[in-house]
Description:
Elements: E1 5-10, H1 17-29, E2 32-35, H2 45-56, E3 60-65, H3 80-90, E4 95-100, H4 115-128, E5 134-137, H5 140-157, H6 171-218, E6 225-229, H7 238-245, H8 254-260, E7 265-269, H9 285-293, H10 299-310, E8 313-314, E9 318-320, E10 326-328, H11 336-350, H12 358-361
Parallel strand pairs: 1-2, 1-3, 3-4, 4-5
Antiparallel strand pairs: 6-7, 8-9, 9-10
Helix pairs in contact: 1-5, 2-3, 9-10
Amino acid sequence: MERKYQVFISSTYSDLVEERRKVLDVLLMADCIPAGMEAFVATDIEQFEVIKKVIDLCDYYVLIIGKRYGSIHPETGISYTEMEYDYAISKDVPVLVFALDDSVDLPEDKCESDSEKIEKLKAFRSKAMTNRLASIWHSADELTGRLAVSIMKAKSEIVRPGWQRGEDYDEASLRREIMTLQEENKDLKEELEKSKKELDAFTMHTDLAFENLVSYFKNVEEPTVIIMFGDHQPSLSTSFYEKLIGKKAEDFTLEDTKNRYTVPYLIWANYDIQEEEIDMSANYLSAYLMKVIGGKMTGYQKYLLDLYEQVPVITANAYQGKDGVLHGLDEVSEYSDKIREYQMIQYNNLFDSSNRVADFYQLAQ
């Protein structure tokens, strides 16, 4: 049964007319049904409501980013193009992003001149480029080439309902497919229920053990501090997290992966300490602990506390700046120099034994 897939095309318009035309041609040649072209350019909230309904019916969403941010919605403070993107993400529509390389020179009428919009465009671009199917283009021809490859890859790797003629349905095949899906759904529900019970049991035992530990040290005269945290959520099956997050593992974004590794932490003392709730990655925890208890800190720990103010989250795959935007570890941003500096210091501490600055990493005896 041959299917065609509907693809929503989103971008600013006047600066990307030629690019949009070529994208339309490529999608038609790829047996796709383009949507969201000139007839659906959002300029007010009523038209945006129409666009949302079109996106709901689309199998894929293509975002083309040039050097214009576009018209800003007066209530949300972001452009209609970014609103379209956010809506597609919220509806789990697979997104393909194509961003113009910053080094490409364009005429003034194709570039943003408003300083506020320039910053909004930069933030939007950074957010969009965290998608797995994101790439850079330098010319319209390169854009269409990358689109052709990406849309074929998306169609083969990400199952979508698509569209097909009513008479193409084979009733027997359809019934078999429904039965298979029902069986898979039953198995997933059973696995999910089993995993929930295991997780509840682990949580109960951990809570009781921690309660006993705290109860004991409450009555100890010596000042005592307990810190408790985990470096990731329980190691359950991939299918469990797919069910929990609502998408296939290969479609997990940086934000989804971050959420899998986001865990609570707790610092308790049997004497008065400052109480606050802050988010940070585990690499800062030891330095933060020394700050909380008023302990002596190494130069390295002081450096970490300063770095935290700029980049509060650093992991093996991503980092998050103080602006709240999540970036891939190799992604270029205003924080890139801080990340490179941190990586050099980490190398010096862990591997560069002949040049290691010992006094920086440990307290003087």
